[in-house]
Specification:
CATH topology: Thiol Ester Dehydrase, Chain A
Number of helices: 4
Helix content: 10-25%
CATH architecture: Roll
Strand order of the largest sheet: 1-3-4-5-2
Number of domains: 1
Strand content: 35-45%
Order of helices and strands: EHHHHEEEE
Radius of gyration: 17 Å
CATH class: Alpha Beta
Largest sheet: 5 strands, antiparallel
Number of strands: 5
């Protein structure tokens, strides 16, 4: 379902699949990146925090969300130019199911007719419809005009 620059509509949202976060996901992620923060790996410690238990690292949520959006432009992405205004609004925990809605904020033509720039805002929502994370991504995509 890769979409070209020409096909994205400003103001429209494109949804992704949902994914349930597992204990294994969090353990493997923390081990892979070397996170040894008690809030992420020690339930007894985390119970004494404002969160009342372990939560996912913010970079986990951002990584999973980014992976969810790749089907929108898997074959048409040229480059990620920038990520801006990342906001973590609520914790993600094992057992939560998250999904991403990709909103098109703006589109910009370039001098090269084979590519264009889109500013997306990713809205990551949990199973209750609460926004847990938002980030703006500026992406260069292929255009059909150049095809």
């Amino acid at each position: 379902m890769s979409m070209y620059w020409d096909e994205f509509e400003t103001g429209k949202r494109y949804g992704t699949y949902g994914r349930t976060v597992t204990e294994g996901d969090l353990s493997l992620f923390c081990a892979f990146v070397g996170y040894h923060v008690p809030l992420f790996i020690d339930e007894e410690y985390a119970k004494k925090t404002q969160f009342g238990g372990r939560i996912a690292p913010s970079s986990f949520t951002m990584s999973v969300s980014t992976a969810m959006t790749e089907s929108l432009f898997r074959d048409t992405v040229i480059s990620l130019l920038s990520v801006e205004r990342g906001r973590f609004l609520a914790p993600v925990r094992a057992g939560d199911t998250i999904r991403t809605e990709v909103e098109v904020l703006s589109k910009q033509e370039t001098r090269n007719l084979e590519k264009g720039i889109v500013t997306f805002r990713d809205h990551v929502l949990n199973q209750h419809g609460e926004t847990v994370f938002e980030i703006d991504k500026i992406v260069m995509l292929k255009r059909r005009v150049g095809q």
